[in-house]
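**Polypeptide and fold**
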Amino acid sequence: MNLEDKLRLIVLQEYGFNDAINDKTISEKDLMLIQQASTNDIIQDKITHILKKRTHEKVVKNVKMYKKFQYLNGFAAARARSQSQHELQSLMETVKYISGFDKKLIKTVF
């Protein structure tokens, strides 16, 4: 853990983990820091639920964007499709909060 993460964690502890988790503007990085630092199962479950929900929203957004530009021609459409595919692929590879339903949605693109 680097200095920035330690300082963020101190601020989150002062603010209160529950208050921080309930704040809609909390970043995924902060959620991950809280998850690593907390031993409370309720907090762990809340964070997992929030991260799964956010991941699902990202998947749906990128699949919709891909489908919107799927049959259009031109450089901009190709760029939008490529960007959506890249984001979906990176979500599949790096995020452990992807549900089976989200995996099926992603496979409709590839």
About this structure: The longest helix spans residues 41-69. The chain has six helices and no strands. The mean pLDDT is 92.
